[in-house]
């Protein structure tokens, strides 16, 4: 998965690279403070299942080192995995195949930026709180709409091609509390989210 993510990020940057030939060198005069938006692709992995989605963000950078952002993600695909399942009397634990899809997710973050090239390249770290809904369909059982909420944190980097438009790549860890899964199903309450997004500063 990391190789796929890296390849996607590289392809996105290469596709946008020609803009450098036409962009004015305004990195010394254009401030990155203020409102910004992201729109891009996400890859969610949890319990061995992988799902794809589209995500958008709106944020505000108060100063070179600090900002806030809100995020909304919608699922596009369904993954499949094997989970532990306990049933019967006396209880017997085995495994069962299950379809998994993160249908919708939202979160709010405080974001720290580390500028490495003035108004061009930043490393970033963020921490926040969010929620999501999964559709879980174990083999032979009805679909359960499982809601969760919890702490989110992650790191990333962004490169602005012309001081306003660019590419962002990031990774986020989602801790899932109060996860309402089907009775008898035992799963890991964590997810990893990899993303590649187009960035625009308003």
Short structural description:
By secondary structure, the chain is mainly beta. 7% of the residues lie in helices and 66% in strands. The longest helix has 15 residues, at 2-16.
Write the layout of secondary structure elements.
Layout: H1 2-16, E1 34-46, E2 49-63, E3 66-75, E4 79-87, E5 92-117, E6 121-138, E7 144-160, E8 165-175, E9 185-186, E10 190-201
Antiparallel strand pairs: 1-2, 1-10, 2-3, 3-5, 4-5, 4-9, 5-6, 6-7, 7-8, 8-10
Structure description:
An eight-stranded antiparallel beta barrel has the order 1-2-3-5-6-7-8-10. The protein is elongated. The protein has a single domain, classed as Porin. Strand 1 and strand 2 form a beta hairpin. The N terminus is likely disordered. The chain is 7% helix and 66% strand. It has 202 residues and is mostly beta strands.
How many whole angstroms does the radius of gyration measure? 19 Å
Order of helices and strands: HEEEEEEEEEE
In the CATH hierarchy, the third-tier topology is known as Porin
Major beta sheet, specifics? Answer: 8 strands, antiparallel, barrel
Distance between the termini: 33 Å
User: How big a fraction of the residues is strand?
Assistant: over 45%
- What is the CATH class? Mainly Beta
- Overall morphology: elongated
Task: Compute the average pLDDT.
Answer: 82
> Unreliable runs, pLDDT <50, ≥5 residues?
1-29
Determine the fraction of residues in helical runs and give it as a percent range.
under 10%
Named CATH architecture: Beta Barrel
Q: What is the total tally of β strands? A: 10
Helix tally equals 1
Sheet/helix structural class? mainly beta
**Count of the separate structural domains:** 1
Question: Biggest sheet, strands in spatial order?
Answer: 1-2-3-5-6-7-8-10
């Amino acid at each position: 998965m990391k190789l796929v993510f890296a390849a996607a990020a590289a392809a996105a940057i290469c596709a946008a690279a020609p803009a450098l030939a036409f962009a004015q060198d305004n990195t010394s005069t254009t401030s990155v403070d203020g409102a910004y938006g992201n729109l891009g692709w996400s890859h969610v992995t949890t319990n061995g299942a992988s799902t794809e989605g589209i995500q958008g963000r709106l944020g505000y950078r108060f100063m070179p080192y600090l900002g806030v952002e809100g995020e909304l993600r919608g699922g596009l695909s369904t993954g499949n995995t094997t989970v532990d399942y306990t049933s019967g009397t006396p209880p017997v634990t085995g495994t069962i195949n299950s379809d998994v899809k993160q249908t919708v997710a939202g979160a709010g973050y405080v974001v720290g930026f580390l500028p490495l090239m003035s108004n061009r390249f930043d490393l970033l770290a963020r921490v926040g709180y969010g929620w999501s809904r999964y559709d879980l369909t174990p083999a032979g059982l009805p679909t359960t709409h499982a809601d969760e909420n919890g702490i989110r944190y992650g790191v990333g980097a962004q490169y602005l091609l012309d001081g306003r438009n660019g590419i962002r790549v990031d990774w986020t860890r989602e801790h899932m509390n109060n996860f309402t899964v089907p009775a008898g199903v035992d799963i890991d309450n964590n997810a990893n989210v990899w993303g590649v997004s187009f960035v625009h500063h308003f």
